[in-house]
Amino acid sequence: MNQSSDTQQEWLRVLGKGMVTLPKKWRDDLGIDTGDVVKAKKEGNKVIIEAGQTGHVPYRIYTKAEIEEFIKEDKLESELVEKVKQKLSKSD
Question: What global pTM score does this model have?
Answer without folding.
Answer: 0.51
